[in-house]
Amino acid sequence: MSSNDKSLRIDVVDVGTIIAPSDTTILNALESKGVHIHYHCREGFCGACRTKLIEGEVEYTTDPLAFIDDDEILPCCCVAKCPLKIKVPL
After folding, report:
1. What pLDDT score was predicted for residue 5?
2. Residues 35, 36, 42, 46: is their CA dihedral positive or negative?
3. Dihedral (Cα; 50, 71, 3, 76), 10-degree rounding
4. 29 vs 22, 69, 70, CA distance in Å?
5. What count of other Cβ atoms lies within 10 Å of the Cβ of residue 36?
6. Cβ contact 58:74 at 8 Å
7. H helices of the chain, where?
8. For residue 61, which of 76, 47, 50, 82 has the smallest C-alpha distance?
9. β-pairing verdict for 72-73 and 51-55
10. Where are the domains of the chain?
11. Partners of 11 in the beta sheet?
């Protein structure tokens, strides 16, 4: 089984749990499950989708240019490498 065939659990604080394909950006996974998250560019430039990463690890599909703290991710341009726990701004 390739990594593209796997689905991963994403626990979203104050929202619930979603199961997402491992090759889908976290932003797309959240949107597909009806989780509203603010964004603009979808490419890591603006930082509007900045989200707190509580547990887990991500891989960026595009190097983000927006500033993020060590405990933050840009869900528009990263995929989950393992189960995650995140807190999206509501």
Report:
1. 65
2. negative
3. 10
4. 9, 22, 22
5. 11
6. no
7. 26-32
8. 76
9. antiparallel
10. 21-87
11. 17, 85
Cα dihedral 82, 76, 60, 25 sign: positive
Tens digit of each residue's pLDDT, the chain (90 residues):
344 569 999 999 999 999 999 999 999 999 999 999 999 999 999 999 999 999 999 999 999 999 999 999 999 999 999 999 999 987
- pTM, to two decimals: 0.91
Can you give the pLDDT at residue 90?
A: 78
CATH superfamily of 21-87: Beta-grasp domain (3.10.20.30)
Structure tokens that stand for 16 in this block: 């619930």
Q: How far apart are CA 61 and CA 25, in angstroms?
A: 8
At 26 the three-state DSSP class reads helix
